[in-house]
Amino acid sequence: MISNDVVLLHDPRVAAVPVVDSGEPLVVARLPRLHVSGDPQGSRVRATVAHRLLRADAALPAGLHLALAEGWRSPGAQAAIVARYGSRVRLDHPGATPDDVERLTSRYVAPVAVAPHVAGAAVDVTLVDGTGRELDLGCPLDATPEESDGRCFTDAPVPPAARALRTALSEAMSAAGFVNYPTEWWHWSFGDRYWALVTGRPAALYGPVAA
């Protein structure tokens, strides 16, 4: 379970954060790419995000490396994920109010207007070993709360080996300036509205960007 004091992306406080877009371009992140997303554009992120990913990769313990599942995502792709998962939430929670559905949906996918991926500010990452083999961090990357029985939540109980890997990932990404979305161990962002709210910045650096 996620504590009620955890800020989710549907929270009005996220949407209230102003955006002063830096105008940074999308660039290709120089990390190994996992084939989670079929969109070749998903390897792109804002320039500073790409630089910080390299810093995070260099900060990992010996033998561990970052691998990128997805960076930038088009507004249309984001809307499709929201609709698909929102339909599942409504089926699983027939008594839920529209606000409940929005809140539960935002555990897994952000509303388009505030989505960090759409801004090129977020990455879904995991760890691989020196041979490029994907490591087990307690549940598959991109597993929903239902599919993972809650193990997708960053602080969920997982086996010690997976917990050690999550800790290594968290320390490296945090040291590089990223913030984690606590319902998804793999989701980290820099410069978006959620990042600004969590870190106390007056404005986001990146807003939605077209391909």
What key phrases describe this protein's structure?
globular, two-stranded antiparallel sheet, single chain, 31% helix, four-stranded antiparallel β-sheet, 211 residues, alpha+beta
Describe this structure in words.
The structure is a single chain. This protein has 211 residues and is α+β, with helices and mostly antiparallel strands. Helix content is 31%, strand content 11%. The chain contains six helices and six strands; from the N terminus they run αββαβααβαββα. It has helices at 12-15, 47-59, 75-92, 98-105, 160-175, 193-199, and strands spanning 26-28, 44-46, 65-70, 122-128, 179-180, 187-189. The strands form two sheets. It has a four-stranded antiparallel beta sheet with strand order 3-4-6-5, sandwiched between helices. Strands 1-2 form a two-stranded antiparallel ribbon. A hairpin with a 6-residue loop joins strand 5 and strand 6. The longest helix is centred in the middle third of the chain and has 18 residues, at 75-92. The protein is globular and about 50 Å long. It starts with 11 loop residues before the first helix and ends in a 12-residue tail after the last helix. 41% of the residues are buried.
